[in-house]
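Troubleshooting log. The previous run stalled partway through. Resubmitting the same two chains, unchanged.
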Amino acid sequence: MELLLASGIGVLTTAGVWLLLRARTFPVMLGLTLLSYAVNLFIFSMGRLAIGAAPVIRDGVERYADPLPQALVLTAIVIAFGMTALLLALSVRMGYDSGTDHVDGRGGGKP
Amino acid sequence: MIQVLGHLPVVPVVLPLVSAAVILALGDRRRPGACRAVSIGSCVSLVLAALYLLGWSATGEPAVYSVADWPAPYGIVIVLDRLAALMLLLTALIAVAAAWFAAHGWDARGRHFHALLQLQLMGLNGAFLTGDLFNLFVFFELLLIASYGMMLHGGGERRQRATLHYIVCNLVASALFLVSVSLLYGVTGTLNMADLALQVAAAPAEDAALIRSAGLVLLVVFAVKAAVLPLGFWLRDGYANASPPVACLFAMMTKVGIYSIVRACTLMFGEDAGVGTDLVGEWLVPLGIATLVMASIAALASRNLAELVACMVVTSVGSMLIGAGVFSAEGLSAALFYMVHSTFAVGLLFLLAGEIAHERGALGSDLLPGPMLKPWHLAPLFFFAAVAAAGLPPVSGFIAKVGILQGATGGSWVAGSWVAVLASSLLLVIALARAGSMLFWRPVEGGAAVPAGAGADVGATMMPRASTGPVWFLAAVLLLLTVGARPVQSFMDATATQLLQPAGYVDTVIRPERMGPPDILSPGADRLRTQAVPVRDARPVAGTGGT
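Second attempt completed without errors. Output:
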């Protein structure tokens, strides 16, 4: 399970960085999204991996899953979602205004 | 009354939030006047609150406000120490100038200017006050989301492109921030900054690599916000293309990065931090030198006034790093003084650049001969602001730069620091003198002003009126800073001393015996003081189960 999670985070990060370095707005946005998935998984793994453990303290329970990283992940997901929406709106608007989806506006020219 | 004052540390966060909601409810199309009044009123109230909090913090130990009354390591705390109070006052003052300037018509060029401004203030104030690392991330995101909207204010293709770069850079930085925060949590099991300081100091040697790399990733994130050399190329285009009141407020934004670097390096990775000791070592000063030199050269190469001023934001970051990077009381105090000074000076220059661009019409603030500038106050104020920003005597910038030079003498990069600071002052003087003589002394015969808004601000519906109030206000603050340099400097000295002794901060947060305003300001505060919270016996077990 550790191997699966670690390699999953690694693959997502690699793909995210690769897409981020494409100089077109849509791949950049996809890259950021993949990067945020990788980061969310990473936060999740920082609470240690536990299967079938209770997150709330009760009498007679010895093993706990840490609930805090899950709360952190939730916050991070909400923020990343909002950012993606904003970036999408801005990219679409930029595409309409400049006639190109290049991040530096190259190769444009109004239709 | 005392009950109310006890809640004052949280006011700088709550008040802008409420104001933003009120402004949104009023609607800036239907009742622009009311929105402006609420926004400026909120900023002025923030100044008053910050002044009170500054007096409170000056009495000594940090004040701790537990949100929802959860004790320190579990709940989120708001910590008011000297540095936080200073940053609050600085933010509030620059916000007054920005909101006031915007109320002259700039805010009508897009929607929701004042609501975004208030939300950004909430993010800034929260970032300065919070004592929790993840909460710091949330406030960072808050102020960034608001700043994306503000940077886009007014629209236009160049502005959109600069904002896209700014957003992408900051989203990557946010991802790194999360990695670093969760790594620190995974190793130490806490997110409270005071508790982190204790846990990092007590961490076993085998955790050293993880803690140090997490700390360094954290500093990279803060360096992106502060626009330190290899990570700061997003700044110039973004700031130069933002509308003037937005740029004026953004003069505060890089200071959040500097604040966070100083806070992290003194509190969590200070001298007694065990495996985290001396995390950045002597890296900050050479980084500051490189930033300063690069930005000064860029300032010399600027083609318009707004770009030049944006480069000066980066030079101020470099100077502050040179002062703060030594981590001596003298250097830190000089860097803080310079931070206050440069925020006002650069904010004033941004507002003036906006007014000059408005007067010159389609030419904007491009450094080309143009029509004669009519308002008489522009030339003397520009001269004053330029002298202040370049650090020439007799204005406060000179005092601040002398302090930084003296502070750098205690470090190991003395020669480099001195040469960089002095050479950059010279380059800035040349750049500013060239810009000033081009703008004011090279009028073109009969060069009638093309209507403003034909250039960058396509689709502007309303011409901003000339706005002399805010620029005079900022100039007066700078003058006050010069005249009252001694008391300000002694406050900075006390702040630096407090920062270099993080034990006081940690003790106050982890055992909050002191609550409520100090006795001097309101007798009878004892009633509000809570009982000492019993020290917890065991740390919550961070996921004992394996796979």
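Takeaways: Chain A has a mean pLDDT of 86. Chain A is about 65% helix and 0% strand.
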